[in-house]
Amino acid sequence: MKKHERNTYLNSIDLDEAVEILLGSLADSKKTEQIGVTAALGRVSSAPVFAKLSSPYYNASAMDGVCVRYEKTASANEKTPLRLKKNTDFLVVDTGDPISPPYNAVVMIEDVVEIDDETIEIHSPCSAWQHVRSVGEDVVVGELIIPSYHEVRPVDIGALLAGGIQTLEVIKKSFVTIIPTGTELIENPDEIAEGKIIDSNSHMFEAMATEAGAECVRLKPVADDYETIKQTAAAACETSDIVIIGAGSSAGTEDYTRGIIEEIGELKFHGVAIKPGKPAVFGTAGNACVIGVPGYPVSAYFVFEYFVAAAIKAHLGLAQQDKPTVTASLTARVYSSLKHLEFVRVKLGSVGGRLVASPLSRGAGVTMSLVNADGIVKEPKNTEGLEAGAVVQIELMPRGGDISKETLI
Amino acid sequence: MKKHERNTYLNSIDLDEAVEILLGSLADSKKTEQIGVTAALGRVSSAPVFAKLSSPYYNASAMDGVCVRYEKTASANEKTPLRLKKNTDFLVVDTGDPISPPYNAVVMIEDVVEIDDETIEIHSPCSAWQHVRSVGEDVVVGELIIPSYHEVRPVDIGALLAGGIQTLEVIKKSFVTIIPTGTELIENPDEIAEGKIIDSNSHMFEAMATEAGAECVRLKPVADDYETIKQTAAAACETSDIVIIGAGSSAGTEDYTRGIIEEIGELKFHGVAIKPGKPAVFGTAGNACVIGVPGYPVSAYFVFEYFVAAAIKAHLGLAQQDKPTVTASLTARVYSSLKHLEFVRVKLGSVGGRLVASPLSRGAGVTMSLVNADGIVKEPKNTEGLEAGAVVQIELMPRGGDISKETLI
User: What confidence tens digit (pLDDT) does each residue in B239-256 have?
Assistant: First the structure.
């Protein structure tokens, strides 16, 4: 009954306060690196980028046809066509060919009447620079192509290359080390037995960290031995921006994360007033931040989403983005405790053209409630629940469910 | 004046009809492959997946504490606490430890009073299975984890692993070959000169194809030589699902794409009633589809988006998704031709709390109008334009602009 060895929570602080502490604890200066523009999809610029070249670099024909001097075409009309001589009055041009002085307009091929190999007729006057793609129409030298802290999209890659840019300074991705802990963890399902659990959370974390824009390494599960976990965490803090310790974040006898953070760094909070996800623990060690994520899958998901993904976004200099929401009415009453902000998983459906939300299982361990959820209702602290029929805002799960477009409108 | 060598458009068909022809021409049977679940993020399942194991695999303690037989605790209350003997009446358990017969309930450590090393007292009766995480709470053996044609998310990876699944059958990614064409194309901006253009479109295509979920190879630019382009395209059709020929899709003297498709396969359409993007050409050759994309960057973007990206999604068995939209009023009149569906790039802003959309440059070659756009107004065929003040639907550009959340609500 090693009761004296049990931790107690510091206290459960509110989610907003916890996120603020976490974001305030991140190292301020951003690490950057130079990469090729063609490898920059999804990366974040660390400085504004200006065009080095104009595109097009020269006045170019925008049509197949002939180039002429527009000043000399004023007299052309249907009744008195204008005859022009090759290489004196006009040149044959294809789309993209340069238009150089003295030429300053293009007549499209459809409007040219061929008289012989050397002679053409046109039937209307030209305006200056007609059908000419002028220097810099696409991108002008010196023009801002992308600002700083901009996530590079395909169109940006096109514009950067067209503007003569080959390499780009971007924010380095956060380096995340994931340390699954627990003597009960196995990696091979063939070894399943009473007392054994397949390590699935750490792979979910890997995928979430990758989606959030981090580089990520997952270690093999570490047994519940305080010294081994401490040494593994301390080593990871030397090389990582963010260290995740999976499980062991609560206040049980084998919950070592808090003690380890206190020993190798500085504890910032332990316990957040959210459900699932209460046993989150956070601290810093050197330049790394260490996040203890609970072992229950659904708790783990929310703690990762609100803390780890937020830290990764902040490292990249990106704003924390609100999730898309819909409004629906609850099909059943949801009870809740006064002490926590609760994340209620719901399934959406349409009844008589109205969007309705059915609460799914509440357990912190019920992974399938997360897989099957279309969205999350946030049930605020200090309320005892939501009545059936209550109209609530629902944060949509990424790519969740099969809500038909009509249902949503 | 090689007028006789010029192509003419088949005719300009409507966008919807063109997309229908394209999707109807795709090979029907989907290629699949087996991959590890941990590498499946973003991949698309080709069949429903059911759990092979329950998780947890055994009844597990949900708390640190002691496990007891609930039937024997009925008499416990504050006035007459119940004394229990270690290894006879109770066992000490940590969270996750197995609860095996005859035990069937857990008392949390906070509710246990230690009398001596062998004896405890409890002050209230237990209910059956209290604080026990029962077999399959997380995932039940045989339960559907993900359906077919489901894009794998981090939570799915967690649930699949927890359900004993290690490998997954997924749809093979489309293999896309991009062939930039044009004697004027250069890859190194130091070689810029009159008549030279930096090849930027093909790299934008590479990024767009990757984002859409394809595997992609980009060839070096091929000069404007009919035979060389034809051989390159024919070879690409042997190994690819989709072959993109960049530039040469119009009706000029050096626009070879249509002729090449007619020679190596079957032409399906040439010319779509959209602006920018009219000179799109599409056909099939063997099992590959060949898409001729115009050379102007903005035309290229829209043709890629509506045809290539759509083909990639269809190959994956995914529904074509509508883009998120907002409603705004136009700040200026937009003129347009009766003959085309027009894509008008707009910048969004807020005036007096109302969302307004300012049209940007209309040119097919103005890449920066796409980079700077927050969204696209679709101006239908058979309308002469939209009046200033008209309230229009705007398709938001992916990650476009910096429209503040408040502006949008």
Answer: 999 999 998 887 777 789
Residue B257 placed within a domain: yes
Nearest CA distance, A189 vs chain B (angstrom) = 5
Average pLDDT, chain A: 90
Question: What is the C-alpha separation between B107 and B130, in angstroms, rounded?
Answer: 8
Q: Would you call B164 and A254 a contact, using CB atoms and an 8 Å cutoff?
A: no
Beta partners for residue B84, in sequence order? B120
Higher pLDDT, B199 or B3: B199
- CB spacing of B370 vs A200 below 8 angstroms: no
Cα A131 to Cα A61, A70, A103, B197: the distances in Å are 6, 11, 12, 18
Residue in B145, B146, B370 nearest the CB of A155: B370
Q: Is residue A46 domain-shared with residue A159, that is, in the same domain?
A: yes
CA distance B365 to chain A (A): 6
The model carries a pTM of 0.90
B205 in a domain, yes or no? yes
Please indicate whether, in this complex, the C-beta atoms of B137 and A41 are within 8 angstroms of each other.
no
Contact (Cβ atoms closer than 8 angstroms) between residue A84 and residue A122: yes
Inter-residue contact A37 to A51 (CB < 8 Å): no
Domain assignment present for residue B299? The answer is: yes
| Same domain flag for B239 and B210 | yes
Spatial distance between the Cα atoms of A307 and A21, rounded to a whole number of angstroms: 10
Q: Give yes or no for a cis peptide into B102 (omega within 30° of 0).
A: yes
Question: In B, which residues are within 8 Å of A161 by CB distance?
Answer: 198-200, 203
Q: What are the tens digits of pLDDT across the range A201-247?
A: 999 999 999 999 999 999 999 999 999 999 999 999 999 999 999 98
Question: In A122-256, which residue ranges form alpha helices assigned H by DSSP?
Answer: 154-162, 201-212, 226-239
Query: Hey, are the CB atoms on A138 and B96 less than 8 Å from each other?
Result: no
- 3-state helix, strand, coil split of chain B in percent (to 5) is 25, 30, 45
Residue after which a domain boundary falls, among A315, A349, A368:
A315
Nearest Cα neighbor of B366 from B272, B298, B285, B303 is B298
Chain A residues whose beta carbon lies within 8 Å of the beta carbon of residue B96: 182, 184, 195, 197, 295
**pLDDT score of B401 more than 60:** no
Residue of B nearest to A39 (CA): B207
Structure tokens at B303: 């043709």
Q: Do A189 and B211 touch (CB under 8 A)?
A: no
Greatest C-alpha distance within chain A: 110
Percent of chain B with pLDDT over 90: 75
Taking the C-alpha atoms of residue A226 and residue A233, their distance in angstroms, rounded to an integer, is 11
Determine phi and psi for B235, rounding to 5 degrees: -65, -40
Number of domains in chain A: 4
User: In terms of domains, do A148 and A218 share one?
Assistant: no
Identity of the residue numbered A78: E
**Residue A23 confidence (pLDDT):** 94
The pLDDT of residue B110 = 87
A103 residue type, one letter: Y
CATH number (domain holding residue A215): 3.40.980.10
Chain B residue with CA closest to A97: the answer is B195
Averaged pLDDT, A25-52: 93
Token pair belonging to B407: 């502006």
- ipTM of the predicted structure? 0.90
Residue A204 lies in a domain: yes
Closest chain A C-alpha to B203 CA, distance in angstroms = 6
Residues in chain A within 8 Å Cβ distance of B100: 194
Classified as helix, coil or strand, B3 is helix
Give the end of a domain, one of A266, A296, A315. A315
Closest-CA residue of A relative to B52 is A189
Task: Give the residue-averaged pLDDT of B171-194.
Answer: 95
> For chains A and B, what is the number of CB pairs under 8 angstroms?
230
User: In which domain, by residue range, is B50 found?
Assistant: 32-55+137-171
Q: How far is A195 from chain B (nearest CA, A)?
A: 6
